[in-house]
Amino acid sequence: MGEHWAEVATRLRQLKLLAPRSVHDRLMALNNPLEVLATATDLNISGGMLSPQQLDAMIAHAGNTPSIREQLPTDMSSHPEVVDSMATPPTDLGRTVAPMVEPEPIDVLLRNNLPDWNHSDFSMHASDAPSDISVHFDITGNSVTEGKMSDITSCFTDRLEQIRKLIVKNSQLPRKHQEIARLVAESSRYQGYENKAVAIGLVNEPRYTKNGHLIWGLEDETGEMTCLLTKRKGDDRDRAQEAIIEAGLMPDDVLGVSGTFSQTGDIFYVDDLHFPLKSHHNKASAEQGVSVAFLSDIHVGSKTFLEAQWHKMVRWFHTDPLAKTIKYLILSGDCVDGVGIYPDQEKELAIPDLFAQYTEFARLLELLPEWVECLMLPGNHDAVRPAEPQPTFEKDIQQDYNTTTFVGNPCDFSLHGVRLLSYHGKSIDDFVAGLRTVTYADPVEAMREMLRRRHLAPQWGGKTPLSPEPEDGLVIREVPDIFVTGHVHGHECVDFRGTTLVCSSTWQDQTSYQRMLGFQPKPCMLTVINLKSHKSVSIPFA
Q1: Closest CA to 432 of 473, 479, 488, 482
Q2: What phi, psi does 478 have (nearest 5°)?
Q3: If residue 483 lies in a helix (H) or strand (E), which one and from where to where?
Q4: Closest residue by Cα to residue 405 from 327, 517, 519, 348
Q5: Which of 26-40, 77-91, 201-215, 398-412 comes out lowest in average pLDDT?
Q6: CB-side exposure of 172: number of CA atoms within 13 Å?
Q7: 400 lies in the same domain as 297
Q8: Which of 115, 127, 131, 122 is nearest to 532 (CA)?
Q9: Taking phi first (over 0 means left), then psi (-120 to 50 degrees means alpha), and beta for anything else, what does residue 95 get?
Q10: How many CB atoms lie within 10 A of CB 243?
Q11: How many H-runs (helices) and E-runs (strands) does the chain carry?
Q12: For helices 52-61 and 21-29, what crossing angle results, to 10°?
């Protein structure tokens, strides 16, 4: 029966069809289910949920009506209208987009056989490959700040120096950049389109004028000048500049500007802006064809933690061929719900003790097969300092976990030579508040903006608490092959200029706060990426 269903499931996957339990039972009761499914192409049936009516039409079209009638489940005798409908295919076989009745529950084991993936793209069993994890940056054990003004100054100076080098390297500056104080002093030399000046600095107080122009201060170690990016009309419009004006700028961004001064020297008219991200990144591929999976925001301890779906995923890990290729599971923060994170949180906790939450999560990880190695970093709900970058968990929390590597947030590391950047994503809140094109419904846009700026959390004093380390640990020093965040309980996996962006799914149902905001999370989606082929697939467990 198992091998027989495997063949049927493969055919359903090729047709991109889902089979609910009632249709599955009828299909497997047939002597020739593969012959019946072969008629789907003739009847133009593909994509979506396979309905009983569509199955009836396929059975009739297969030309085996008498024997198939005998093979129907006995309870079909009480539905003569269904049996009669087998004689003639229905004329409308279109997929129902919004059914009037509640859909039947789907057996997750069957549903998880359906995502379209090729064995050649996921070519190696995890148990056949040695572990290969190399950490490039982790603040754990390296935090030296005392929180003094000198530390803050050092942090911003380091940020400016690092990103300035990246702008010079990756952007096409029209000429060599100069110190802002010198440009201001010699502003009369840079008036008119033939004498452009170039500066690189930190953005200060970006805002809009009444006419919709973008204005901000640009500051470096020597001084500050006022920049103006005008909203142009007609043939003089610039699409790239329009996009920047539409989105806005983040406070404390580091960027380059080129342009000219006004006649009075008090305004710098910006012709072009220069960001530190180059146009395209060439991915590295691993020699080993193993895979990495991503989860975030499990929130164990909350009453809305989806425990039943977790056990369905565990069962999938032990039985599915794709799961056997997954060697690493990246857990990008908020694995527990924590205690005292927000007012009246205790009313929504199923496990009110913080350490009991971590113990329970350790027990849940132990259910995964032995070939899976976990890499776990903290988030804003975890028992670490809230200021980013965050060091990893204390030893008394780690002691309950086996085959788990603990790192800080963010963490820059490599798996078999493929570079990954994992960040919980708290600063997405600042990007949503600061940029008009970033929303919680599309958090990947915030990830794109982080890469454009080569910085995970540029704004000081916003929604994300920052630790002023002498070396800014939130600068994206190397462009990753895979960039993963969580925090916002969404889910997406897309490519951006050669980097795979993964917004990790949550394992928590809609909270009361999300319900009040009208925000619907996308829970229980496991994103799997092969380190050799870079092919990705998302497995649903909801």
Answers
A1: 488
A2: -125, 135
A3: strand 482-485
A4: 327
A5: 77-91
A6: 2
A7: yes
A8: 122
A9: beta
A10: 10
A11: 16, 19
A12: 20
Given 274, 297, 312, the domain boundary residue is 274
DSSP lists the bridge partners of residue 508 as 305
Number of domains in the chain: 3
Q: Which two tokens stand for residue 73?
A: 């489940």
CATH of the domain at 180: 2.40.50.140
Tens-place pLDDT, residues 308-351: 999 999 999 999 999 999 999 999 999 999 998 888 889 999 99
* 320 contact partners, CB below 8 Å, separation of at least 6: 112, 113
Q: Choose one of 274, 292, 316: the last residue of a domain.
A: 274
CB 476, CB 458: distance < 8 Å: no
Q: Is 297 helix (H, G, I), strand (E, B) or coil?
A: coil
> Are 387 and 288 in a shared domain?
yes
Q: Which amino acid is at 439?
A: T
- Give the tokens for residue 481: 């092959």
**How many angstroms separate the Cα of 373 from the Cα of each of 236, 293, 313?**
55, 10, 16
Q: Is residue 208 located within the same domain as residue 328? A: no
Residues 166-196 have pLDDT tens digits of: 999 999 899 999 999 999 999 999 987 778 9
Residues 74 and 187 in one domain: no
Long-range contacts of range 22-30, CB-CB < 8 Å, 24 or more positions apart?
Answer: 22/52, 22/104, 23/50, 23/51, 23/52, 23/55, 24/107, 24/110, 25/73, 26/52, 26/55, 26/72, 26/73, 26/76, 27/55, 28/1, 28/4, 29/71, 29/72, 29/73, 30/59, 30/68, 30/71
Dihedral sign for Cα atoms in the order 103, 105, 110, 111: positive
Q: Are residues 194 and 212 in the same domain?
A: yes
Q: Are residues 296 and 206 in the same domain?
A: no
Tokens of 93: 């076989």
CA-nearest of 299, 283, 401, 414 to 350 is: 299
157 inside domain: no
Q: The domain containing residue 201 runs over which residues?
A: 172-274
DSSP 466: B
366 and 488 share a domain?
yes
Quick check: helix, strand or coil at residue 507? coil
Please check whether residues 337 and 401 belong to one and the same domain: yes
